[in-house]
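Course exercise 7: structure representation. Students receive a sequence record and must write out the corresponding structure in token form. The form below is the worked example handed out in class, using STAS domain-containing protein (114 residues). Read each field label carefully; the graders check that inputs and outputs are placed in the correct fields and that the protein name is recorded exactly as given.

STUDENT ID: A-19
EXERCISE PROTEIN: STAS domain-containing protein
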Amino acid sequence: MFDASSDDLEFTFDELTGVLAVSGGLFSELDARRLERQISEALVRVSHRLVVDLSDVTFFPTLAIRALILARRTASVARRTAQRDGAEVEVRAQSGTLPHRVLTATGFPLLDAS
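STUDENT ANSWER:
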């Protein structure tokens, strides 16, 4: 397990479960890039599935959605290029949270954490 945190945004990755838990707010482009980097780093440590859990995220702008789309696309391309099973990126958020409401409204594939 590794942690990377700054002022308000925190990441915790559990290799055993393949869950990258994100908490705090994604307030800037720098925060969105940190999210992209954390997902990329976690992807190389899992073999089948990475779950990005946004249940404790308090602010979720379009930059965060972009980071998730890029992560899913990168994982998909890596699986096709390698012509083998690779890690998929799935996103989970507690029902009623801001990320759940935003991602549901946009039609983004989402696991419900409730």
